[in-house]
Amino acid sequence: MEWRPDEQGLQKVLQLLKDSQSPDTATQRAVQEKLEQLNQFPDFNNYLIFVLTSLKSEDEPTRSLSGLILKNNVKAHYQNFPPTVAEFIKRECLNNIGDPSPLIRATIGILITTIASKGEMQMWPELLPELCNLLNSEDYNTCEGSFGALQKICEDSSELLDSEALNRPLNFMIPKFLQFFKHCSPKIRSHAIACVNQFIIGRSQALWNNIDTFIESLFALAADEDSEVRKNVCRALVMLLEVRIDRLIPHMHSIVQYMLQRTQDPDENVALEACEFWLTLAEQPICKEALSGHLVQLIPILVNGMKYSEIDIILLKGDVEEDEAVPDSEQDIKPRFHKSRTVTLQHEGVEGKCSAAALDVLANVFRDELLPHLLPLLKGLLFHPDWVVKESGILVLGAIAEGCMQGMVPYLPELMPHLIQCLCDKKALVRSIACWTLSRYAHWVVSQPPDAHLKPLMTELLKRILDGNKRVQEAACSAFATLEEEACTELVPYLSFILDTLVFAFGKYQHKNLLILYDAIGTLADSVGHHLNQPEYIQKLMPPLIAKWNELKDEDKDLFPLLECLSSVATALQSGFLPYCEPVYQRCVTLVQKTLAQAMMYSQQPDQYEAPDKDFMIVALDLLSGLAEGLGGHVDTLVARSNIMTLLFQCMQDTMPEVRQSSFALLGDLTKACFLHVKPCIAEFMPILGTNLNPEFISVCNNATWAIGEICMQMGVEMQPYVAMVLNQLVEIINRPNTPKTLLENTAITIGRLGYVCPQEVAPLLPQFIRPWCTSLRNIRDNEEKDSAFRGICMMIGVNPGGVVQDFIFFCDAVASWILHGFKEQVGDDNWQQFSEQFPPLLKERLAACYGV
């Protein structure tokens, strides 16, 4: 018997739907409670679908809301729906997919795809054939509604549709979709392309079987009058460029011509999709060949796309010059990922950003060949009276900095003063882009005499750090951090002035920019190192940092950038950090302890506790490393009074690679600083280090390898029982193809150090590693690590001279490099000069070419 609603029940549900549209929070709370109660009644969901599909007397927002509440119920408890209710909902959806209202059709489509994604596709075998069948309907609404639902299903379940589990429905769906590329309604054409597009990146076989028809159909739609259709055509071509470039190459000339038109499309969304084409093409080997003849058209189009539109300027509050007193809203603050500072583009217009990114990657492909097309345009832009045009010119200059640096060098001496002057422009958006562009040329600035450009640039950038506009503050702070990385100790004479500015900014900045300021201070410490350890500098810098440190609670994510900053400062200040180290050390230990405890509770009762944010533990371990490295032996008493070794034992076994990576770094630093406390734990730690010599996790493996080497040097002969736990893995890594350079070098050093303390144990394996060992250490700069490693190899050769016979020439080469550099350093540059003057010319050439001496 067909289900019918009870009139009284229906009125209750309608009242609930009306109440839930009220802005009042108390009413909202009551609605939530009522919903929980009603969900106890199995047929409550029947009422919801009835209101959505059948109660035409109600207004559309109420009907749609009913469908969305039902969708949430499906998400939360579909498995508990009685079969009769589930069947009723499915049937009603399919019967009403052609509702006259676009809002209701879309809501039903969302409901269908939510049921389908609950693993119901197998339990609803008639769904796909039925929807594909409804596409043939004479009624536009039915066809559009079914396509809308199919598009959502293709988006949500593309992999499932191409699997055996459902008998590969794509084999009939894709040819069906392709028929609709010629439909008279633009909405339907757009749905059809969007559906097929879902299967390009996954390289679906059903699509490959129809690839030529697909590409021909796309070309046929090239000049479509509907912007949504054009956008989907562009999107399809961009994805095909990534995965089926072979099919596009024969048509590349016309595709490029088409994309040149679309990049200037009056509809911004189409232009944006088209702009992606240049970004993707730049990654393909054929880029140069495909674009060489078109640069003369493409460059002006991209440059023109870099201007802010009027809408951009409104959205960016381009007319607001001073906003530093306005607090940030929380959504202004992007989530952060630590230790990865890439200087991102400061220009915020959507299309302009994409054009700039395209110009950047193309500059990296074409290098200076781009300049003849650009330079004539640039001059007109950079000195233009309209600020919007001038801003776009400064952006162009920044975008090409990496790729066209060589060719730009002759123009920089006259451009630099102009750019530095733009830092004082009356428009905030010009000041901020000038910061970014100047940072892109920081390397060149630092290569010139300091008074030429470094000093004026630094002076102006520091003023911009104290700008009244938040966007400019942010751009200036990021640019200054880049300048610090390039200039390093060149900044030492100006430290007092720099610190005054950065400390003043502390009292001035809102939330978001404070986080960037921490980064600028940390980078300064990394760049000038121990030069920061002067009482007057410490007096300026430490009080505001410690004040922030005391202000923040243990749960506050702002601790991340502050801990990173303090870690750099502690390493730089060395003994100068002593007065501050105790509370900082204690808190780091507490953070690690709290996170471990929370992880433990979560693993035992996941429904009762939340998973901890392990970043708290990672940054705390990193700061402890900074303290150990900076304070050296002074850290001894702190370690003695804490349970850090016990905590470290747990961290080294954490499931998260980043936690293990930071643990091994700390273990190595503590080994160097206060081995007395590490030694009792070696028997427990070594097997863990051995199991982490897995190059799948490069950074974990690298830090574990380094820590083993440091432990060797402290243990001496007592290392003997542990050699077998690690040696085979190390030999395996050094022989692996495609191992990153740093890991190879660290592995070679640790093998050398193991051989230095236990030559008898390691020497028998010499033939297995001597050749890669020599090649990986031949070019690294000399330090105590390399020194101990070479001494180790010499001791092993003493034990097993036969082990190097086959590869002796490699050994001589590596040793020659080590000895020559050591000798040159010992005798000093002048003596070496006189000594080497007497060499025959051929020998001089060989030494210079092979060993760089």
What does this protein structure show overall?
By secondary structure, the protein is mainly α. Helices cover 70% and strands 0% of the residues. The protein contains 48 helices and no strands. The chain is globular and about 100 Å long. Mean pLDDT is 88; it is low at 335-344. InterPro entries: ARM-like (IPR011989), ARM-type_fold (IPR016024), IMB1_TNPO1-like_TPR (IPR058584), Importin-beta_N (IPR001494), Importin_beta (IPR040122). One of its GO terms (cellular component) is cytoplasm. Its main location: cytoplasm. Residues 31-99 form the Importin N-terminal domain. This is Importin N-terminal domain-containing protein.
Sequence-ordered SSE layout with sheet pairings:
Layout lengths: L6 H13 L5 H14 L5 H10 L6 H18 L5 H13 L6 H19 L6 H8 L5 H17 L1 H4 L8 H10 L6 H12 L7 H4 L2 H10 L6 H17 L1 H4 L3 H11 L5 H15 L4 H5 L3 H10 L5 H6 L34 H17 L4 H12 L4 H13 L5 H4 L3 H11 L5 H13 L1 H6 L6 H12 L4 H18 L7 H12 L4 H18 L6 H17 L7 H15 L4 H27 L10 H17 L4 H5 L3 H8 L5 H22 L3 H10 L6 H18 L7 H12 L6 H17 L1 H4 L3 H12 L6 H16 L8 H20 L1 H9 L3 H11 L2
Helix pairs in contact: 1-3, 3-4, 3-5, 4-6, 6-8, 7-8, 8-11, 10-11, 11-14, 14-17, 17-21, 21-23, 22-23, 23-26, 25-26, 26-29, 28-29, 29-31, 30-32, 31-33, 32-33, 33-35, 34-35, 34-37, 35-38, 38-40, 40-42, 41-42, 42-44, 42-45, 44-46
